[in-house]
Design a protein that fits this description.
With 360 residues, the protein is mainly beta. It contains five helices and 24 strands. The protein has helices spanning 180-185, 203-207, 310-315, 327-340, 344-351, and strands spanning 2-11, 23-30, 36-38, 42-44, 56-64, 69-76, 85-94, 99-109, 119-123, 156-160, 166-170, 173-176, 197-201, 211-214, 220-224, 228-231, 234-243, 248-257, 264-273, 279-282, 286-290, 299-307, 318-324, 355-359. Helix 4 runs antiparallel to helix 5 (344-351). The two termini are 19 Å apart.
């Protein structure tokens, strides 16, 4: 499937920020099965005066569906009269899936400024490294791992410093971790990070470790709401996997606002149901808050995990994701619905005024 990405490039306002060089971008993503994707390098050019001081330039890039974007590579060719460039940020919007990704930079791409680099890899939400935020910070890839020196053999995870991809080391080989669910299926729990060693390696170091393939799972159900606009420029997204063998649920929720001063509190709730629309498992009600972009943390991603019995996991045929902009009202509604014993469709109908609902 072909997808159009609307790429917005914001040049900074430092002295001499604009560039006359040719600028090139590569979008990088990841499919639900862990397959890395790339747009290939594309030149960004639709005007003779792109990338001037304080300017916002917008480009449309058509490519195969890359899945959720994880990072991008931006560079210029250091040509023409004023090649040095101070890049503020890049925003990529997937107009097919209605997803929005912000890649901060706030650095020079210049031979005579900063570190002299004219190529930079930008990660969503964090500049130098894509980060997942929760009550305790989580390293790249959202696996919940921290450095530890007391792990047993076969309990080491390494992360690429290029694209944030994570691998489990077993028998001297690296196995790509498609999601925390596959790590759980291997008998490791990211909720207990002290038992797992975590290191970050360069591309050259990774190449020294033979690749064994993707870490297998016994079968999983993927769920993803996509990035949904809740109104007033407030956004949420919940996505994850349910391992059908172990019953492990590994999920993440992104809460964001792109307003200057208007923060909000949102919540997410997921129901897994059977073929008769009867609830099999109801997740916890996860609430998250963000501030306006000029005040504090305006964009956060939080990881959460739950477990379903193996017998119940086998009964699940559908999921329903609620993204809520009025958590207190929804909680009251939810309590009444649970007490009533009604099917999922009844809650969907009741919640339409205070939540976005995505089913699959």
């Amino acid at each position: 499937m072909t997808v159009t990405y609307r790429v917005t490039v914001v040049t900074g306002t430092e002295d001499g920020s604009g560039t006359d060089a040719n600028v090139y971008i590569t979008l990088l993503g990841e499919k639900p099965d862990g397959t890395a994707t790339s747009s290939g390098e594309r030149e960004l050019a639709n005007s003779a005066d792109n990338f001037e001081w304080g300017q916002v330039d917008v480009f449309n890039l058509e490519t195969d569906d890359l899945g959720p974007l994880t990072s991008l590579v931006i560079r210029h060719n250091n040509a023409n009269g004023r090649p040095g460039w101070y890049l503020d940020r890049i925003i990529a919007e997937d107009e097919t899936h209605h997803s929005r990704y912000v890649f901060p930079c706030n650095r020079w791409l210049a031979r005579d400024e900063d570190d002299g680099q004219i190529v930079r890899t930008l990660y969503e939400q964090g500049g130098e490294r894509r980060q997942v935020r929760q009550a305790a910070s989580i390293p790249p890839s959202g696996l919940g791992l921290s450095k530890s020196s007391n792990a047993s053999p076969g309990r080491e995870v390494i992360t690429s410093d290029v694209d944030g991809a994570a691998y489990l080391i077993k028998d001297g080989q690296r196995h790509r971790i498609a999601s925390p669910v596959s790590l759980m299926a291997a008998g490791l729990d990211p909720r207990e990070p002290d038992s797992i060693t975590h290191r970050t390696l360069s591309a050259a170091q990774l190449e020294q470790i033979p690749m064994a393939g993707v870490l297998p799972v016994s079968g999983s159900r993927q769920f993803d709401s996509g990035l949904v606009h809740l109104g007033a420029n407030h956004w949420m997204r919940t996505w994850g996997s349910l391992d059908l063998g172990s019953g492990q649920i590994a999920a993440q929720t992104r809460t964001a606002t792109f307003t200057w001063f208007g923060g909000y509190h949102g919540a997410t709730y997921v129901i897994f149901s059977d073929r008769n629309d009867a609830p099999v498992h109801k997740t916890g009600f996860y609430r998250y808050g963000v501030d306006g972009t000029w005040i504090g943390l305006s964009d956060r991603t939080d990881a959460w995990w739950e477990t379903v019995s193996a017998a119940d996991a086998r009964r699940i045929t559908n999921h329903t994701i609620f993204l809520v902009w009025a958590p207190d009202s929804f909680q009251t509604m939810l309590d009444r619905w649970v007490d009533s014993g009604q099917k999922v469709a009844a809650l969907v109908a009741q919640a339409a005024a205070i939540a976005a609902v995505v089913s699959g």
